[in-house]
């Protein structure tokens, strides 16, 4: 929603408390996260030729906000201009470190302190193309939410 100054105020529920935030193609945002400035509304990457034709598609992800919660099991992906959120499940492990690479998003397992044996950290790679359904969802503007349904968990307008 827009406030009186024309600033987008995004209020959404997250699976946990924010632990780490990145914007765009992986630029870390230092805390505290009271207000995060974004430029004017921009199209998302799924509609951008820069995303599909560039050797490094991260440059076209500037309109997005990535939030890792303290449970480290879900990565929340937010498009502030449309007010949409997508939740990406992360691999099962004791914790992951994320890296935004030209080929995709990498999750590197964080081994617990004092781990015994020759166990090596596992890595998972999610190519940017695999995010296409989530990116298309984020770029679809959210419709106006019906008023007065805070205490009605399954409003009739939702088709339940």
Plain-language structure description:
The strands form two sheets. The chain has a five-stranded antiparallel β-sheet, with helices on one face. It starts with 17 loop residues before the first strand and ends in a 21-residue tail after the last helix. Helix content is 8%, strand content 27%. The protein has two helices and eight strands, in the order E-E-H-E-E-E-E-E-E-H. It has one domain. The model has no long low-confidence stretch (mean pLDDT 76). It is mostly beta strands.
Ordered list of secondary-structure elements with their pairings:
Elements: E1 18-23, E2 27-29, H1 49-53, E3 65-69, E4 74-79, E5 84-89, E6 96-101, E7 104-109, E8 123-127, H2 132-139
Q: Pairing-aware structural class of the strands and helices?
A: mainly beta
Distance between the termini: 25 Å
Tell me about the largest β-sheet.
5 strands, antiparallel
- Give the spatial strand order of the biggest sheet: 2-1-3-4-5
- List low-pLDDT spans: none
Radius of gyration: 18 Å
SSE pattern = EEHEEEEEEH
Q: Tell me the number of helical segments per DSSP (H or I, 4 or more residues long).
A: 2
Secondary structure tally: strands: 8
Calculate the mean pLDDT score and round it. 76
Overall number of structural domains:
1
Strand content: 25-35%
Question: How helix-rich are the residues, as a percent range?
Answer: under 10%
Shape: globular
Short summary of the structure?
The chain is mainly beta. The protein has helices spanning 49-53, 132-139; strands at 18-23, 27-29, 65-69, 74-79, 84-89, 96-101, 104-109, 123-127. The protein has one domain.
């Amino acid at each position: 929603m827009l406030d009186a100054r024309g600033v987008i105020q995004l209020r959404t529920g997250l699976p946990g408390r924010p632990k780490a935030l990145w914007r765009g193609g992986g630029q870390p945002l230092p805390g505290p996260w009271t207000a995060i400035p974004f430029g004017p509304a921009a199209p998302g990457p799924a509609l951008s030729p820069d995303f599909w034709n560039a050797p490094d598609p991260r440059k076209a992800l500037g309109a997005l906000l990535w939030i890792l919660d303290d449970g480290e099991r879900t990565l929340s992906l937010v498009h502030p201009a449309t007010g949409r959120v997508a939740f990406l499940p992360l691999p099962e492990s004791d914790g992951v470190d994320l890296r935004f690479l030209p080929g995709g998003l990498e999750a590197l397992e964080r081994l617990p302190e004092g781990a015994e044996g020759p166990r090596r950290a596992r890595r998972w790679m999610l190519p940017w193309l695999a995010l296409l359904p989530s990116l298309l969802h984020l770029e679809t503007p959210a419709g106006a939410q019906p008023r007065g349904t805070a205490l009605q968990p399954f409003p009739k307008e939702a088709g339940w």
